[in-house]
Amino acid sequence: MASPPTSQETFDRLLFRLDPDRERAGEEYELLRLKLLTYFRSRAFMRAEDLADETLNRLAKKIAEGEEVRDVLRYCYGLARWVWMEYLKKPDAHPVSFDDLPLTPFVMSDPLLRKEREFCCQHCLRELSAADRELIAEYWIHENQNHRDARREIAERLRISLTALRIRVSRIKDKLETCFSRCLENGASKMKRP
Predict the structure, then answer these.
(1) Are 95 and 178 in contact (CB under 8 A)?
(2) With contact defined as beta carbons under 8 Å apart, do 69 and 62 qualify?
(3) Checking CA distances to 156, which of 68, 76, 149, 164 falls within 20 to 30 Å?
(4) What are 113-151's pLDDT values in tens digits?
(5) What is the pTM of this model?
């Protein structure tokens, strides 16, 4: 019995399926990921990156297992629908998202609510390790710029793949979202002040 492929082998098979030329395959992968992000963001969902990555991981696994995929985009959208439906079944499917922290006009009009959100944001950032705080800050700085090159540089500096970087950042965001939700639920005034 053959051993299961490593995650790198699985990813390589997906790239080869997208295009035998490695460079064009990388471009196709990024384009496919962008389409998935658009799909998930259109559902007003703040964790689009996580769901897009999960969908691509499932696609890579299916291809590595020998699944015949004639139309990658159509197959990928089918997987995306399953990922979306599975997520909606989770009890915590709609937590307060840390990505949603920019203050809305409603929040801005309520000074107490604004202060609670600001307090919770600072509190949760302090709960992270210094390395995680630095990584998430650097990652977010490039959010609206040409982030591909910047994120590639971060991954190279950390000596990890872009996928591993996304996973690491996703885990940090999950910690922040959980902390932020808990902080708001408990009332920022009850939280221990520095």
Answers:
(1) yes
(2) yes
(3) 76
(4) 667 777 887 888 888 888 888 888 777 765 545 567 778
(5) 0.47
